[in-house]
């Protein structure tokens, strides 16, 4: 299977499927592999759970990905609650799709061998140094993410099985050489003809606008004159950014924090172990006996590294003589650690140790003392931590103070300004569609346009706009939705009627010209512009003209085809097609075009599979009401 993937590695979709392994970090999380306690559920897919831990990890990683991709613009986006809602909706749908593919693969009986898992892990770029797999980096990365080697291998095995299903489906798509050539000839087609523009403005003087026409047009387009509901709002904004500007961290506070968090800035003694793992399989007793036999060989003088390489079931450490790199307490299985850290001399070996992964023989191969990082090296980090804590605390306190003051005296913000020094803002008139930035969030708009705030003119509750901003609002004035009367917009309506009727006259003139062309008569009422071998991408002519030229069927020999179209500026164009020159096949573009067509077909198949799986599945999304999924 992996050979087929490598052979097609230049395909965009194959690359996307290979990235599934890397996306595991973003979409899977680690809750299902290292924790046993029940997790809150965000979705059920055919009875299988997607946990809150998986969802939160996926959301956080998607945020990080977009932050890297968008840079400073991300911060502006993240302030909009609608952005967060859309992101969460996309993530939960991705997780549902992934779960459906996993279930379909399992139902098909697909499997991935240990060799395939090993090869896939070795191919992950995050574990490579100078293009080569680095076991130390692999072990360190897994520990930092909270994975055990076996847990991570199980995760990769799952993704490989899913990948087999998807790859097997999309690999059935192919593109014939004749399709590629035909597409290239079609895309490179050149068309010739001519066009003439009929100016709508030339017919304005011929139009007589009646009162009946004005009234009729007004009634038919009355929605154009709707004036939406509008409000004026007073508000108090609680901004963590403003709080941050006022926070000062002293040297004494830094010193106290450093001394109070000594363990954070000290390195505990580290130990390096090697092990031999015998997995229990279907016969735990036989596995334990095998481990005991290996222990006896070691006691008889056998080389630990050699036995690990020959017998250990650990995927990677066996190749390194059983080496597990430097390990700190709390990173391995509890039974493993209890036995391993009981070794006090380098070279000592445990007996056979049973853990949840099987039977181990563990050897202490090295150890190094702990160390303490000087304050000077971590001062900036401590200042940042203290500042962040103070800002969060002060922001929370300020929210409570504002909530209390605006509730106790609900018809004014004066106490907030007097006691907290926060300025009161006031908006101009706005509707739901024209809300200023501070009001432009679903939660705020729901409040300021609620009957309660409009009728009572009292302060709202504190509304969180984002993680760093919250606001209290009060409606100070209100205008109901209305429709502008015909008398107010008569001039505008008359102008629209005049232009529409002028355009109708222009279209009639175009029909007459087209009839003359079909009859083979000479047309002298308009001036034509020649179109000589125009491509689809031509920009020298109105886009509507070029589009119409390529929409028409190729004319029979000795004839022309003709059509009319309204251009972007409201004029009418008569377009005549006289000839079609087939595009040529460029061998240099064939491979690229073939890949594009195949990728397009593969994408269609993939989307069809997802839609079919979703149509037959029982899916229950259990996010909040503000999270919408498609």
TrEMBL record:
<keyword id="KW-0997">Cell inner membrane</keyword>
<comment type="similarity">
    <text>Belongs to the PpiD chaperone family.</text>
</comment>
<keyword id="KW-0697">Rotamase</keyword>
<dbReference type="InterPro" id="IPR046357">
    <property type="entry name" value="PPIase_dom_sf"/>
</dbReference>
<dbReference type="GO" id="GO:0005886">
    <property type="term" value="C:plasma membrane"/>
</dbReference>
<dbReference type="Pfam" id="PF00639">
    <property type="entry name" value="Rotamase"/>
</dbReference>
<feature type="transmembrane region" description="Helical">
    <location>
        <begin position="12"/>
        <end position="35"/>
    </location>
</feature>
<keyword id="KW-0472">Membrane</keyword>
<dbReference type="GO" id="GO:0003755">
    <property type="term" value="F:peptidyl-prolyl cis-trans isomerase activity"/>
</dbReference>
<dbReference type="Pfam" id="PF13624">
    <property type="entry name" value="SurA_N_3"/>
</dbReference>
<keyword id="KW-0812">Transmembrane</keyword>
<dbReference type="InterPro" id="IPR000297">
    <property type="entry name" value="PPIase_PpiC"/>
</dbReference>
<keyword id="KW-1133">Transmembrane helix</keyword>
<keyword id="KW-1003">Cell membrane</keyword>
<feature type="domain" description="PpiC">
    <location>
        <begin position="268"/>
        <end position="366"/>
    </location>
</feature>
<keyword id="KW-0413">Isomerase</keyword>
<protein>
    <recommendedName>
        <fullName>Periplasmic chaperone PpiD</fullName>
    </recommendedName>
</protein>
<dbReference type="InterPro" id="IPR052029">
    <property type="entry name" value="PpiD_chaperone"/>
</dbReference>
<dbReference type="InterPro" id="IPR027304">
    <property type="entry name" value="Trigger_fact/SurA_dom_sf"/>
</dbReference>
<keyword id="KW-0143">Chaperone</keyword>
